[in-house]
Amino acid sequence: MELIKAENIGKDYTVGEVMIRALDGVSFEIEPASFVSFVGPSGSGKTTLLNLIGCLDKPTQGGLTVAGTDIIGLDRKQSASFRGEHIGFIFQDFNLIPVLTVYENIEYPLLMVQSLPAKERQSRVAAVIEAVGMTNQKDKYPDQISGGQKQRVAVARALVTKPKLVLADEPTANLDHKTAYMVLELMKKMRDEFKTTFIFSTHDQKIVGEAEIIYTLEDGQLAGREVKGGSRA
Amino acid sequence: MRYKRRTLFTASLVAIGVVFVLVFVGVSGSFKNMIIGQITGSMLGDIQIHRKGYVASIENLPLTLNMKPQAVAKVEKALKEMPDVAAYSERIKFGGMFSTFAETTNVRLNGVHPEMEMNTVPLLSSRIVEGEKIIKKGEILIPELLAKGMKAKMGDTVVVIATNKDGSVNGKQLRVGGILESATGPGGRDGYVHIEDAVEILRMDEMEISEIAVRLKDFGKLHSVFAMLDAALSQEHNKEGKPVFEVHTWEALSPFFNIAQMIDLMTLFIKIMLIAIVLVSVMNVMIMTVYERIREIGTIAAIGTLPGKILAMFVIEGFSLGILGAAVGTAVGLIVMFALNVAKITFSFARQTGLVLSPTIGLFDILITCLIVIVVAVLGSLQPALKASRMEPIEALRHV
Questions:
Q1: ipTM score here?
Q2: Residues B238 and B262 both lie in one domain
Q3: Is 60 exceeded by the pLDDT of residue A230?
Q4: Which of A113, B56, B154, B391 is the most buried (most CB within 10 A)?
């Protein structure tokens, strides 16, 4: 069964008196444990689409099902709850909490979102911090680590809740190419280890090739779908 | 504690407010209670009973409005039935002329039973600055202003002349047995004679009492005892069907009550100012905090933190500021009051000098003040917290 099913979704915004159609008639299906990229120039609708899939916004038209749930019908509290349970996020600017250590940043969703007991939090954080190779930096603060390391922490934070899906909006935009490739390799490794679907958006053509399934967006519409060799698509 | 300086500054503001309130309540309360204690304990008593209409004419000390023995007996009966009454004193109040044979002036006098009077106004004896702490037959206690003005000394023979009820005049020689420190308020410049001397001067066929002063076991029960006494005595009517007695608490008889009310009003004012300080300080800092953390709020909302939890996070921050300010303010306030007690600062009030300021504050007042601070701190953080919890994650994440 597909993890994500989008049927003819559209999204309109009103900016002043002007109505902007950010997405128009987008349909696709994504299977579990996929490594997917949405590519396109700025303004093509990548971020909008990720926001819809991530329950941060609602489509103006069409249907959208994630992990078997019609997310259009969810209210604000239900959306937050759904995200906490099923979706992890990796942000372009890392968005780590500056007053928390690496360990505490990763632990945060388990404590504040899933309210797990201390022992379970400890074992999960230890596992995921080891997986992203940040054990030695666990007591450092975000301003004491590099950009690449910050993004590793962000990957760990996204995965610690064992989500079915991780959404990453331009996760490598603020990294140099070498570090960007390292982060993407890490994400792939995490996909293999945790069987989590990763969807990331990018406008960098050098990065996009790392994905196994590539959706191209142009002016809010799906312009193409490419499956790389050996992928599950 | 991400911004220690700002947190400490805000908590300090709150603490300063708490210090001001506690010290003001302690100092003003002690001052007020001291003066009330002086007034009720050395002159007025807690409650006074008169014949109806007497208080309105009290400046004239009308002998025609004294209570006859039957009326006094009814009052005594009512007082004896009240377990909260500690003591009472029957007084004959009259005005007259006071002469040292060299000079003559007018004087207001109380004729009292010495033991009853000392039991009812126990601080009276502390006002006797010269002479024995007792009122003897054939002797007069005179206020020190009168003594100084008339150059009267201990042991001097003086004459007291008074107009009687029938209009005739009578006098009696008395010995100056004591000199009284003047006190503030009604009766503060009255002299004292033995009640039998008063009966003799006024040529009373039967002892007619001008007022009965009452002291309570617990001053805190003033109004409840007054209500019971008033209810009991208001049932007594004369032949014309009019009430015989009137009952008053010290509040109705002393102008200081207005000052006491002013002090209470100022205390309320100070508390309102504290509320304003706490509200503005906490709200200001929480608005800043929320604004600075918009992206962080967007992040935690995006990863699934429920709106209620985001609200709770910021309310707890406000609550913590309140607790910190209240705790520090209480500690500092108590230290300041302890220092004031040790310093033994003296002050004068009207003619009374050498009063020692000894501020105290009850646990109830401390708890109420801390509670006000904490509740207002929480209220002050509520609006910014609500704003944070209602932020749309995608808009917050776009914030620069």
A1: 0.90
A2: no
A3: no
A4: A113
